[in-house]
Each structure stands twice: as C-alpha cells, then as structure tokens.
Amino acid sequence: MIQKYGGHAVKFSFSNSPLDNIFGLRFAWEFYRHGRRDEYLKFTHRSFAQSGAGRANPYTYEVNLGGVRTIWTADPENIKAMLGSQFEDYGRGKAFQSRWHDLLGTGIFNADGREWHDSRHRLRPLFNRQRVSNLDSFERQIQIMINRHLGGGRTVDLKDVISRFALDAIGDYAMGFQVNALADRKNDFLDALERIKTIQNIKECAGPLSWLVPTPGFKRDLKVLDDFMEPLIEHAASLPQSVLDEMEKTDHGWTYVKACASVSRDRHFLKYELMSVILAGRDTVSGTLVWTFLELVKRPDLMADLRREIENTVGIGRDAPRPTHDDLRSMRLVKNTLNETLRLYPTVSLNLRTALRDTSLPRGNDHDGNKPVGLAEGTPVIFSSHILQLSPETYEQSPPGTSPPHVFDPYRWEEWKPKPWTYIPFGGGPRICIGQEFALAEMAFLLVRLLQNYSRLEMRCEMRGNSDEGWERPNGSASIVEQFMMEKGRVRISGDVTLSPRDKVLMAFLP
C-alpha cells in the first residue's frame, strides 16, 4: 500500500541497533530526554538536519516509534496537504483522541468529521465581528490587573498575571462567568489545569508509549476542573428550551455554554465544549503576550515607537480613551509586533495529524525528497511549525536590509510577506483557528492599554538561557534555529504543549 501511494520517507535512526530500528526506543528516549531539558526545538532541528543532509527537500523523515510508523515533517507542501488540499484525508485520529479524552472528550480540538463540523458551527457566533468588536470584557480584566498587580512599580510574575488575565477574559467573554483568577491569588482551577497540561505533554511526547507515563494526582485535578465548571453547566442545562431559543434570536444573554445547552443537556458534552474554549482562549493569548513583553524589555526604542503610534491614534496616559476595534486594526506597528512574536514563538510548536484513510504526502520520498510519501490509514504525522517558520527557505525573498530571521524585528513586516504555508501560527485550511481575530484583538487591546499607562519595563530577575551543547551543523555554520535559541537574552523555552518561558518572569511596569 505504501508503494502504491508513493513509498517510504527517509528512515531516521540514531544507530544500527535492531531495538532502535524496530521499536524506536532510542528515538523515544532522546525525545523524552530533550523534552525534560526543554530542548524539543533542538531535538527537532537535529533530527531534520541528520535525516535531510544532502537532500533538496530535507524536512520529512519517518521513524518506527513503539512499533508505529510515524512521519515527521516541516515541509510547507506537506503541511498544506494535511491542513488544506487533502484536508479530508487527515484528522486527529483515534490514538490522539484517546490520549486527550479525559481532558477534552469530544470537544472541537479532539474531534473529527461530523462532531468537529458541528462544534465549529456552534462556535461561529462567539467570534462574529460584532462580538469581537466588543472589548468590554477585556477592559474589566485589565483594570483589575492594573489596580491589583501592576500599580506602584511592583514586581510581578508576568507569566502568572497574564495567564490569569487570559483565563478571566475568556470566562467573561465566552461564558458570562467571573473566574476571578486575577482577584484570587490561590486559584485551584488554574493550578490543577497547569498540572494536567504537564502530564498531557509527557503523554503526547511518549506517543504510542503513553500508557507507561505515570499520572499522579491526574484524576484529582480533573475533579477540580469538574467542580469549577459544574455550577455554570448546571445553570445552562436547567434553562428551558424556549429561553435558549429566544437567546439565539435576540443575542441577549447569549453565551457559548448556553448555545451548547440548546443542542444537548448532556453534562459531559457541555464540559468538553467548555474546556476546549477555555484552553484555546488562554494559552495563545498568555504565551504570546509574555513573549512580547520579554522582547520589549530589551527594546526601549521599539517600545517608544509603539507608544508614539498609540499616542497618535488614541492618546497615552491613565486618562486616555481606550481604543476601539477599528483603532486596533489601524495600528500597524502593534499588529506587526504581535505577528513577529508569533513568527518566533508559535504557540503550538509541534502538532499532529493522523491519516484517516490510505493516502499520501506530496514530498519526502526518494533521494532528494521530491516524490510522494505513502501513508496507511492510522499513520500519525507530527509537524513542526517552529522549524517551518525558522527554515532558510522561508526567508529567501526577504528585501535587502531585512534583519536576520532569528532576530526579533517587527519592522520586517513593513516589506516582507511570508510565502503561503510558511507562517501558520493559527494553523490553516478549514481547521484554522476560529478564534484568530478574537485572540489578536485581545492581545492588541492589552498591549495598547498597558503601553498607554506605562512607558518603561524593567526586569527584576536573572533568567536562564538555553543550552549551547549538542547542535548539528551539517554545513559547518550555525542554523537559524541555533542562532535563535542562542541569541543573547533569549530565555529558556519550556518544553510543554505550548511555548512559554520555563521560569518565572519577574518584571515591573513603570510610568
């Protein structure tokens, strides 16, 4: 079957040992070991560098992992096929759904086919332009953040504060519910969610061997999440159908959980839909904003330019009016700063699709990697958007004078435009993030509001960098990935499901 659809990709192996080649034990161990040391990006770069040496299209290989043939790719043509042109051939797949079922059930991030389509249809009203343009829920949480956490030049753990802001904002916006993460220093829901994500990350890295991963306290933490959401679910499930139908018509009192309740009163269904929105609404926003401020603290010139753009658009100072949605869309440097953060720090650096039927990928077979790769139904494909967005080919058409790709430079976006399928921070194709405009509006609004109030940022801690050992240099020079990781001031990147700094980010916002 594999030959019928194209053939094998180049096989990656650390050694000639039968155990390595048959079960991929060395690969699995190295992947796990690098992850525990926050070196996923280094491992991914190393594996592509070794398997792709001398090949015209070096970003696809295969490995046997626990007896399961697994494809790795960062080739834009293959990613385009999975997410776009061959969308019906790929999905989450049964193995992925099993690993994430306890947390996500049949929610949109863990669904395929009709379940995915129906879930996405229910989400659309949440992110229509009228709702996204209403910034009231963001403003409420920003005022709490400023008054309780940032005022007086206090030292704050920015990673923690922005994570709480994002959780409160999505709760307010999508559910009409006050999570109070910013107000409540000890938030059991937030703590349990972080522990669950850590375990899920390890399980995902283990892939077919995930059943070996110990899960201490996992069920207890799941119950914390259940207990937190239960009152909200109970309220929505108890509403008469006539009330829910009226909300659909008038939009008055509409929330996402109530929209779900109009479809089904099943509490498991409501819980999984709710959890999917919470995770999506928090992780992208919190991670991207923390990375943005970590870059701005090193660039007072950029911060001054941003404040100048904000001043010219809506004004600066504590009494300045808040921006409208149209104001945010008009601020090019604000938009480009967020684009640049997402270019260097895509929220989900590794993602997965599974062949839902016998199919192929366009490239990766033969000596140069120019011919298709055949896939049997059930074959997992791991793709790296981080390697994709840091590959040399992505920057071949950069205008003269553009900063090197590993450098944080929002001004590059004034002239540079990435080629299709080389910049995918929100995915692509039919499954592209439905909340993309919401996330960008939320991030831009917070960035503008904080820069209206504060003119300087100050680090209040020393942060660890990334290890300089074990880099592959097939052509003798440092790759873009290595230059990115080893740039002075680049903080250690956590090896979790979503990209974030490993350590606390102690920072002060000053007038």
UniProtKB/TrEMBL annotation:
<keyword id="KW-0479">Metal-binding</keyword>
<dbReference type="GO" id="GO:0020037">
    <property type="term" value="F:heme binding"/>
</dbReference>
<dbReference type="GO" id="GO:0005506">
    <property type="term" value="F:iron ion binding"/>
</dbReference>
<protein>
    <submittedName>
        <fullName>Cytochrome P450 52A2</fullName>
    </submittedName>
</protein>
<keyword id="KW-0408">Iron</keyword>
<feature type="binding site" description="axial binding residue">
    <location>
        <position position="433"/>
    </location>
    <ligand>
        <name>heme</name>
    </ligand>
</feature>
<keyword id="KW-0503">Monooxygenase</keyword>
<keyword id="KW-0349">Heme</keyword>
<dbReference type="GO" id="GO:0016705">
    <property type="term" value="F:oxidoreductase activity, acting on paired donors, with incorporation or reduction of molecular oxygen"/>
</dbReference>
<dbReference type="InterPro" id="IPR036396">
    <property type="entry name" value="Cyt_P450_sf"/>
</dbReference>
<comment type="similarity">
    <text>Belongs to the cytochrome P450 family.</text>
</comment>
<keyword id="KW-0560">Oxidoreductase</keyword>
<dbReference type="InterPro" id="IPR017972">
    <property type="entry name" value="Cyt_P450_CS"/>
</dbReference>
<dbReference type="Pfam" id="PF00067">
    <property type="entry name" value="p450"/>
</dbReference>
<dbReference type="InterPro" id="IPR047146">
    <property type="entry name" value="Cyt_P450_E_CYP52_fungi"/>
</dbReference>
<dbReference type="InterPro" id="IPR002401">
    <property type="entry name" value="Cyt_P450_E_grp-I"/>
</dbReference>
<dbReference type="InterPro" id="IPR001128">
    <property type="entry name" value="Cyt_P450"/>
</dbReference>
<dbReference type="GO" id="GO:0004497">
    <property type="term" value="F:monooxygenase activity"/>
</dbReference>
